[in-house]
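Researcher: I need the complex structure. Ligand is adenosine-5'-diphosphate. Inputs:
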Amino acid sequence: MSEKLLEVKDLKVYFEMKKGFAQSLFGKPEVLKAVDGVSFSLDKGEILSLVGESGSGKTTTAKAILQLVPVTGGSVVFNGEEIVGKKDLSEFRKKAQMIYQDPYQSLNPRQYISDIVGEPLMVNELVSTIEERDERIREALEEAALVPPEDYWFRRPFELSGGQRQRAAIAGSLIMKPDLVAADEPVSMLDASIRTGIIDFMLKERDLKGVAYLFITHDLSLAWLISDKIAIMYLGKIMEIGSAADIVKNAKHPYTKALLDIMPIPGKTLTGKRKILEGETPNASSEIRGCKFCGRCPYVMGICKETEPEYIEVSPGHQVYCHRMKEETEDE
Ligand SMILES: Nc1ncnc2c1ncn2[C@@H]1O[C@H](COP(=O)(O)OP(=O)(O)O)[C@@H](O)[C@H]1O
Ligand SMILES: [Mg+2]
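Model: Output:
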């Protein structure tokens, strides 16, 4: 039996744009809906990928779940406990970690790698002696293939390659034995040749320790390779969510289909029928009454511009944000 780790319901993060056009005209602050009603759940040890173009709200969703940005609305239940609005987040912070795209942002350039990796243990008083701390650091570095650990102990981030730095950052998160790691494009700045090693390292930690990942990527083929579930995001909203196979083999939403059309699949020659969506992604601050995708949808209908769709469950766990699904299910 799988055990539920995380339940996100109707999560919203709105940013008030300070001196926006609307404000200067009407005295009303312009609101940017970075995350606008995101819901999903994650079991222990599961991997869910959030996939979408730049600006679709992936990073903000992860930060909102980890309580790193103010949440406008909705609920985040972690290990059975509501996290939104909780005053003391110290236990939650140990169990839910974030890995960033650029480890330069998260690693203190003046610290030694051993201190970076071991610091969370000291801060959270998870070890009582220096020997115990050093042993845990040695283990973590070995798991991250930064071996022999002694060679990395007194090095600083700039003395490591990009891939080694990301391994150190991941080791520093995993040393806390978290239940959840939100990994925000963790390999997209790295050479293709070293990506696989880092992904394998993360997957091995899942297999060994049951850590669940919220994996953020714009790369649908990578998501397909590693995920149990995939959620396709557009303008702060999940367009379609389901098992990796539901999304890649049985996509229903026109946006998912468009992403699949341009996804390189090993062994598959592209047919030349590539359908690339026309138009630009509108800004998340523009006022959209109906479906978030209606401005770019090739099948747009009258209702799409008026009313926001509800999620239609087309098969267990496979949900689609699209009015056309309703018609399809009603026709049956
Ligand atoms: N702190 C912030 N203040 C104002 N707008 C923000 C802030 N963070 C993100 N945004 C906006 O929210 C939207 C979603 O951003 P983000 O979550 O970073 O998307 P993604 O990770 O998918 O590229 C974008 O329009 C972005 O400009
Ligand atoms: Mg991002």
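Model: Summary of the prediction. The pocket of adenosine-5'-diphosphate (ligand 1) is lined by residues 15, 32, 34, 52, 54-60, 284 (CB under 6 Å).
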